[in-house]
Amino acid sequence: MNARTLTAAFLLCVLSLIACAQSPEAKKAKHLERGLAYYEKAMYPEAVVEFKNVVQLDPKDPDGHYRLALTYLKLKSLQDLQAAFRELRSVVELAPGNRDAQLKLAELYLIAQQPAESNRGRSQKRSHLHRTGAGLRPEERHELRGSDAAQSCDSRPQLN
Questions:
Q1: Which of 81, 113, 132, 155 lies 20 to 30 A from 123 at CA?
Q2: Where are the domains positioned within the chain?
Q3: Per-residue pLDDT at 15
Q4: How many degrees, rounded to 5, is the angle at CA 44 between CA 42 and CA 47?
Q5: CATH homologous superfamily for 22-146?
Q6: Residue 125 confidence (pLDDT)
Q7: Which residue stretches of the chain have pLDDT < 50?
């Protein structure tokens, strides 16, 4: 090998190390930026990949979980709705003040508990979540089907 080839190989190694040495925060910001760009262009599967990278780099980041949940909701398959449910639960645990995440999670609970009402204008797949409890842990299935909140909704006074 000549000196030129060795120098080029050395520079390539140095540049590779510099690229790999990027801080986790910088990587997270880059994935978040790309995820937002994909989301804005309605490229939801690509956005899911980027937001998953954000969550993998920082599992305690409620914004990453929230954006991932919103993206899953856009995809609308049963598996995506189940993933959105899990992500929204994570958001509510990590950031109890996130009212939007609480409302979206409550909506998923209501859809699961009242499939006949929730199917108006919604996919049949969502009602499947109620029937099967698919994607939920056993304690979540019990919570989803037999909560006191669902029973109290049935006994609301009617306004005339």
A1: 155
A2: 22-146
A3: 55
A4: 110
A5: Tetratricopeptide repeat domain (1.25.40.10)
A6: 43
A7: 116-128, 144, 146-160
Residue of 80, 77, 48, 75 whose CA lies nearest to 64? 48
What residue spans of 21-157 are helical by DSSP H?
A: 24-40, 44-57, 62-75, 78-94, 99-113, 115-118, 124-132, 138-146, 148-154
Joined together, the tokens standing for residue 87 give: 């992500």
pLDDT on residue 156: 37
Task: Output DSSP code: residue 58.
Answer: -
At 88, the amino acid letter reads L
- The pLDDT value recorded for residue 158 is 39
Per the structure block, which two tokens stand in for 105?
A: 């999670």
At 25, which amino acid appears? Answer: E
> In the structure encoding, which two tokens stand for residue 102, read together?
């609480």
Helix axes 44-57, 62-75, angle to 10 degrees: 160
Structure tokens at 143: 């919570």
- Quick one: CA dihedral 39, 42, 48, 49, positive or negative? negative
- The pTM of the whole model exceeds 0.85: no
Q: What residue has token string 């109620």? A: 130
Amino acid 22: pLDDT? 78
